[in-house]
Every structure is written in C-alpha cells, then in structure tokens.
Amino acid sequence: MPLSISLTVNGKPVTANVEPHLLLVQFLRENLRLTGTHVGCDTAQCGACTVHLDGRAIKSCNILAAQADGLEVTTIEGMSKDGQLHPMQAAFKECHGLQCGFCTPGMVMTASALAADSPDLSEDEVREQLDGNLCRCTGYHNIVKAVLEGAQNMKARA
Ligand code: FES
Ligand code: FES
Fold it and tell me: Which Gene3D superfamilies does this one have (predicted)?
C-alpha cells in the first residue's frame, strides 16, 4: 500500500505517494525526473547516486524514499545558485576532474559534504574519504586536486 511522504528536494516542498519498497534514487530519477543522480551499481558500491540528506552525503540507492520523509534532500541539480556553479562544481571544471562525467555528480556531492565538515583536508584524507566513489576514467589525480581546491573555495566563500 502506498505511503504518503513529504520532503524538501532542492529547496522545494514535495509531497507524493510512494510504494514502500521504492528507493530514493528511483524516486528522484523516475518520479521527479532529477536524472543528474546516476545509478552505476545499485548495490551501494560506486557512489554515483550520492545526494545530501539533511546535509550528509548518502547513497540514494541504499535508502528508501519513505525514509526521506520529513527530511531535506539536495541533488546535483540543487547545487548551483543563481546560475553560478557551486564552488566544488567549479573546481571540478577548473581542475579537469572529470572525463565521461558519469561519476561526477556523486563525486561533487560527497566532496562538498566532506569539505563543509572539514575544509582543510589533506590529500590523503581526500583519497580515504572518497573511497566510496568510483571513477573508471580519470585515475583520480585531478579529482583529488579538484576536491582540495573546491574545499578551499568553499571555505573562502563561507
Ligand atoms: Fe548507488 Fe552505485 S548506484 S552506490
Ligand atoms: Fe568517467 Fe569518472 S569521469 S567515471
């Protein structure tokens, strides 16, 4: 039997009836058409589906839509403001932290939550904290560079 949920997605209130087994990633992509959140594995391993739930980075293939009831979800579509890229998005662009871009939304969501908590991360810490986000293209070097630069840009803008 469907459940009624009310949550905030990218700053807008959303109310919907969802099946109890519907994953949050399916709700975002299929119900709300927010397809910037990608599905790479569907088994909580690749991080492509990462979004913010009340400011924390979570894998949206690993949580039910019903569990987001009453909470605030931010997806990659909600990161830019007034036509300006979020500092972490801008750093990925400047540092060439992407190639095919499939992993990038999840990387940006993980990295921005991480940098909000710990702006002065070391390279080793970035590498350790990003171990739940997989990239098949870049070799990670420019991603790490982007996260370090994005963290400093976020700090400067805070
Ligand atoms: Fe969620 Fe891979 S699709 S972790
Ligand atoms: Fe292609 Fe990361 S840029 S998977």
Answer: 3.10.20.30, [2Fe-2S]-binding domain
